[in-house]
Amino acid sequence: MRILRQDAWEALVGFICSSNNNIIRISQMVHNLCKHYGPLLGHIDGEAYHDFPEPALLTKPGVEAHLRQLGFGYRAKYLSTTAVIVAQLHEPGWLDSLRNPESPLLGEEVKSAGEMPEGGREGYRTAHTALLELQGVGPKVADCVCLMGLGWGEAVPVDTHGKLRCASLLHQIAKSSAAVWQIAQRDYKFGKGKHSSLTKATYDAVGNKFRALWGKEAGWAHSVLFTADLRAFSERLQAKVEVDDVELVKKEEENSGEDEDVKEPVSANRKNSKVKKVKLEDVKAEEIKAEENMKREPDDTQGLLDGGREDMMSRVKRRRRKA
Predict the structure, then answer these.
(1) What mean pLDDT, rounded, does the chain reach?
(2) Which of 200, 105, 128, 148 is nearest to 18 (CA)?
(3) Among 100, 231, 253, 266, which lies 20 to 30 A Cα-Cα from 142?
(4) Three-class secondary structure assignment of 284-307
(5) Rounded to a whole number, what is the distance in angstroms from the first to the last CA of the chain?
(6) How many CA atoms lie within 13 A of 154 on its CB side?
(7) Is the Cβ–Cβ distance between 113 and 101 less than 8 Å?
(8) Contact, 166 vs 173, CB < 8 A?
(9) % of residues, the chain, pLDDT over 70
């Protein structure tokens, strides 16, 4: 698992487009944005390629209406308004000034971002708050931009609808993931009492829980967790655990040096259980004990004796098969 390191403005636009959307439509939106507003880079096999448009290119009159025609829907207003805020109400380079100094732009010096308190480092909190002032940016989108566009590894995007998405035309990257909120409910006991719904307080509490566990790598860790929840990845994980357990059994057999010790195979359903040892001498002792007990059975009812003998011998046979 890798966390994207997109251009901050490109990440912001991509995640605004992701609101109530799917990967295919997000990619189409970003493609149309570049095609109609981005500067031409060149042609390959007759196909034109355009760069990602700077904020100023989306501030011209009629941009919102045109984006609606291109299928952006209500997001058209968010994009045009945000472009005006970034290009005209802030100094050039404002977005990049919110970047984590430990993950600087290419060619810039790496600097410390400070200590890691519960709610994240000061620079992260500043960036998150500043992004919330833009149109179409809520807590989750702000955290997505902080994590994948500004290098703040402690950002933990939480979504009630179960989707976290991003799109990049230039790198042809698209990603979909399971809900962090669902993981928080299932694994960390959120969803009860004061955290029964995803309010701002609960959103912050989930992020703080992840940050307490993984610190600066909380954003990466949450990506690993929800990826493991996807069916394709969970099947790979289960297969790997089963192989690892078999290897563990083989190593223990090689290191034990006791021929009478035979290990029980470990199945995928018992992947986290301890390897059980069954000694043949114990099985033999139990078998002898069973025979002696059957000799002392009362002889008043032959059927009762036969039934008891069959039941006891079945248990012995099962133990022998395991050995």
Answers:
(1) 76
(2) 148
(3) 231
(4) HHHHHHHHHHHHCCCCCCHHHHHH
(5) 42
(6) 28
(7) yes
(8) yes
(9) 58
Catalytic position from the list 60, 140, 216, 251 = 140
Partnered with residue 49 across adjacent β-strands are 42
pLDDT at 200: 82
> Which residues have a Cβ under 8 Å from the Cβ of 310 and sit 6 or more positions away?
none
Asked if residue 263 has pLDDT above 80, the reply is no
Tell me the whole-structure pTM to 2 decimals. 0.65
Is 140 labeled as catalytic in the residue annotation?
yes
Please identify which residue in the block is written with the tokens 């069916």.
Answer: 231
Identify the CA nearest to 13 among candidates 99, 153, 136.
Answer: 136
Q: Please, which residues bridge with residue 48 across strands? A: 43
Predicted confidence (pLDDT) per residue in 180-234, tens digit: 556 556 655 555 555 455 678 878 888 888 899 899 999 998 888 767 766 666 6
CA 198, chain centre distance (Å):
18
Amino acid at 146: C
